[in-house]
Specification:
Distance between the termini of chain A: 32 Å
Strand content of chain A: 15-25%
Largest interface: A-B, 73 and 74 residues
Number of strands of chain A: 12
Structural class of chain A: alpha/beta
Shape of chain A: globular
Oligomer: homodimer
Strand order of the largest sheet of chain A: 1-2-3-6-7-10-11-12
Radius of gyration of chain A: 19 Å
Order of helices and strands of chain A: HEHHEHHEHEEEHEHEEHEHEHEHH
Number of helices of chain A: 13
Mean pLDDT of chain A: 96
CATH topology of chain A: TIM Barrel
CATH class of chain A: Alpha Beta
Largest sheet of chain A: 8 strands, parallel, barrel
């Protein structure tokens, strides 16, 4: 799957993933009204609106980006119907040929991580059937529990040829509270990065490992160091756009081959129609606004990478 | 809710929570056969079996323990039907008067943690309705992202009078890999414990904070230190029984008032019928075997606390 992700990046020229993190406040009124008129102002109605909104965006961007990243929380907030909309979104994105990174940030003791891994990436045995549950291509994993919380995910990834992005240095303002703590002269996130490198070293695709890392665009200097700590790990970079990261902050996340990183934007793309800059699209044009914002993001990253090389 | 949990502990005399972590291998054949005959060997069939199995156990233990802890992973592995069985379990446990600790170990950047908190503990606004989604009473939270990943949960807890258990020192063998790293002379878990104490200090119930901690029974010496670092935080203690913790390992997790900790057992109770020791119950008696195992666990903890005082 890491090979497929890289092929997708090369084919589209876009090291970009679109975060499908729908809040109801991002969804155009006409979609909400239609969903509520069918299902009421209920969890079912909200979940239906979320799926239709996602579908519009996916239709508009599936030929220019290789991957999407639905954020589990935004679906779980609508309960069981919300989780069903998450699954419909995963399936629809697969129909459209996109790689799906489930941003679930799971992680637990060994036997529990096994169940998460089976549910999100693998298969579960029910009687004589082996069944897929959510069936994402990658998931994000929280490393706080150490190796035996991560290895069950790696085991399932090996069976299914799927991949992981382990949280190393997150994009949020207080990520340093624990992640930056110095131990033996190096911050915790570097030790986590070392482990990511180790976990991935015996699980390689053609050029990169199946075990990637999450490092926030908001911390470019740390990204530079982590790039060298984990040379064979793909880095999923959140925090571009709405969280403050810019193209020029991203160059150090990439290797000299122009690969090694995939940059996420959520709000900045999917809610572009609400920005002054894209107001001319109107609410009916929300998906085209998203496409336009994605194109501009791709260009921004290209320009930053080119000026690095010049 | 922390007051209600404490009342429940005092009323039952049981500082015990039963982990509802169903694996299909724990479920008696007669339940599986019934569920599969109605729903097939499908995710729906597995989820139905899980719910029926849980219901039997809950009926058998709801008068002797104050709380249950369903583990999200065990339901997510069966996809959307599994998550629906999680929600049915939460609701059924509420009908039976039990406090429900959702073992979800979520945690993300601020806006995302807000959505998790709304979905699991709070309410979500859909049109003119404010709706509950999963509606647990407590959830477990992963602290790796720092304060701004935790505070949105605290905000919702304040609105809803609900509570948290933050992962501090987990019960698994490799938990020390990152959690034990020394910074400024103290292991990371102590710094996390300090933060738990701080986060909880302005959010107190009658005697204990709404912000509790998870500390594994498998690390009793660390539990002793963490007890003093977080004197007003309730400690949720996993790792009893099947993971190796015993009553005598637990005494330091309790304060002198006999409160301050609630001990979880999952497999050791819910799959008791599969142990040699409880074989006489047979598979039809699985719920009574669970009750018997819970009674013995309560007695083991009582005896350990009494011998501490003598």
């Amino acid at each position: 799957m890491i090979n497929r992700l890289i092929e997708g990046i090369q084919k589209t020229g876009a090291p970009v993933v679109v975060g499908l993190d729908p809040m109801l406040s991002y969804i155009p009124g006409f979609i909400l009204r239609e969903a509520y008129s069918e299902f009421g102002e209920t969890l079912e109605g909200a979940a239906e609106a979320v799926f239709r909104y996602n579908k519009g965006i996916v239709d508009a961007i599936s030929d220019i980006v290789p991957a999407v990243k639905p954020q589990s929380a935004m679906y779980e907030q609508f309960g069981v119907p919300g989780v069903a909309a998450f699954k419909r979104t995963v399936d629809y994105c697969h129909e459209k040929g996109l790689v799906v990174i489930g941003d679930v940030k799971r992680g637990d003791i060994g036997s529990t991580s096994e169940a998460y891994a089976a549910g999100h990436l693998g298969k579960v045995q029910v009687g004589s059937n082996r069944l897929s549950a959510f069936d994402e291509d990658f998931v994000t994993v929280n490393p706080y529990l150490g190796s035996d919380g991560v290895k069950p995910f790696i085991k399932v990834c090996k069976e299914e040829k799927k991949g992981l992005f382990i949280l190393v240095k997150t994009s949020n303002p207080s990520s340093g509270e624990f992640q930056d703590r110095l131990t033996d002269g190096r911050p915790l996130y570097e030790w986590v990065g070392e482990k990511v490198n180790e976990w991935g070293s015996d699980f390689m695709g053609d050029g990169y490992s199946y075990v990637g890392a999450v490092v926030g665009a908001t911390y470019p200097e740390m990204g530079k160091i982590l790039r060298s700590v984990m040379p064979k790990s793909f880095i999923l970079v959140p925090g571009y756009g709405a969280q403050g990261g810019k193209g020029k902050d991203l160059v150090h996340f990439f290797n000299d081959d122009g690969l090694g990183a995939i940059v996420n934007s959520s709000r900045g793309i999917i809610a572009a129609w609400k920005q002054e800059k894209y107001a001319s699209f109107g609410e009916e044009g929300y998906a085209l606004a998203a496409r336009k914002a994605a194109e501009e993001m791709i260009l921004d990253i290209h320009q930053a990478l080119e000026s690095r090389n010049s």
